[in-house]
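Kindly inspect both lines:
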Amino acid sequence: MHLTRLILAAAIAATCTATATAEPAPAGVEMISRDALFGNPEKVGVQLSPDGKYLSWIAPVDGVLNIWVAPADDVAKAKAVTDDKARGIREYFWSYRTGTLLYLRDTGGDEDFHLFSVDVASDVKRDLTPYPKTRAMFNQASHLHPDHVLVGMNDRDSKWHDLYKVNLADGKRELVQKNEQEIGSYFSDADLKVRGAQKQSPDGSQELLEPDGKGGWKSAGKIPFEDSLTTSPMGYSTDGKIQYFADSRGRDTAALFAIDVASGKKTVLAEDKRVDLGDNVMADPKTGVVQAVAVDYERSEWKALDPAIAKDLETLRGIGPGTFGVNSRSLDDKHWIVAYAAAEQPTVYYRYTREAGKGGKLDKLFSARPALDGKPLVPMWPQLIKARDGLTLVSYLTLPPDADANHDGKADKPVPLVLMVHGGPWARDVYGYNSTHQWLANRGYAVLSVNYRGSTGFGKTFIAAGDRQWATTMHNDLIDAVAWAVDNKVTRKEDVAIMGGSYGGYATLVGMTFTPDTFKCGVDIVGPSNLNTLLATIPPYWAGFFEQFARRVGDPRTEDGKKLLAERSPLTHVDAIKKPLLIGQGANDPRVKQDESDQIVKAMKAKKIPVTYVLFPDEGHGFRRAPNTKAFNAVTEGFLAQCLGGRAQPIGEDFKGSSISVPEGAAGVPGLVDALKTHTQSVKK
């Protein structure tokens, strides 16, 4: 039974007003600024060139992230080698051509990433994929062929990528494979020769192919549908004699295998009954032989497979109780760049000088966010939560300082909770530094992230448990996690908000519509509201993944499938919304189109249900520009403070440089109307 529109609007306003007097975070805890948490990092993505001559990183130039390079032995001589003035550069890597960097960049969040090169010595930059509406897929670089790389391009057919060899000296491309068989991916070796391919079959399984020696393909095996998200080829050793494979066929979790190419013999290198292995490995930079694998259940831990680096891993563990990764290794393997972080410690980069078999020497280089040094950051606590059907949900809890005075991970008193739902859904939450967790905890909220069924990394049975369970058992896992938090006195059942991006945004909308009494308010970031329109507008280059959506979400090609998708769509149940809702959207999002947010905002307006809608014209699937991230979080902070009663930093100048617009409901967040007026006036000046 629904309230009348007038009573409903009044109830939402009353809810906000009443909860603003909830117990605030203690005044004695320093408020960490949003700029320190979400502004541009000082230095990130630190790497070493293969020849060891250059050190590189990403850092701002006039507020926009760009690539910087310095002589490895003289960081003071660093210079910016790119001059992006828009969204910034976030993904780059060294080629094996001396002094040549490669980086990916899209336009306004459209995800049509182009691959660029830059010669450090001459500053010459080149678009290696200079074709409109083209998304580059980097395939292979090799020290055996330093002047060339393999790149997939879909300029001929937007759905399928042809494979090209690109000359880094002049940018010219040479066709290697014309994709006439709807191939989803190609597998090549260090000699830049195509050794295999993979394509989707009508039943959702994946067919493995290998060259038939006549210019065509022959079958090399099959990956059944149930193994399709946990099984994949991983590449070859440099000599081409060993192929590595993450494989869950005949088992539940993926094990790391080495396959002798000549004989076909498979050897298990590492396995764990709790988690899939193979996503994160370390390989010798010259031989390509895998030397270590990361095992990530509650926390990531490295397992040495080669005794030659066991001492090195032991040395790196000695940095601290957090986790580490190796960003890059020089080709002679004498120098590594190591990234270390803990929940209460943002990433710190080290140069590691090896002494083979003896460990080595660590020299600290940079902290990604030195502005957070000495700030009251708090631990993150892994939790194993049982769902109602007995499934174990690996989850992560962060408590505000006043709720865990002795830092034992046990709540001293209940405080408002934000349930933070990860996207995907075929992804997972992990332990480590998380700016959103730290921000919300600093404002007085407990934060809980849950690896609900359907999340990846915990075996194929765990993934399959989420098949066609959007808004049903997948959502029940989130409700069960909230019940766990209430039972353990982390929070009170009446003081819980839900927030997330992409699938997490969808989960937020499900929370507002399917379980409207569970959550006090919700923050949806680029979440789909209508599953039928979502699947009708996926990017064309996702064609090879479509059967995964059809079988794991619902099939829009059948009447029963359309009916299922409509039933699981929050838009269908918009009448049920009775709590405050904030929606954030990027206008250029190619995955979850702007219409997904527009639809539900329009439906809520038609029914006179209040909503605040924030739109960024220069963003895509999520917010990448630091000014936009700060702006949206400033709005979110005020919204949550009004709903849950935590503290809030005034918006102040956090809209500076942002493209923020609020098409609907600005009056629903304290101070937002005035902040927008001030921002508009400053932009006009």
The radius of gyration is 25 Å.
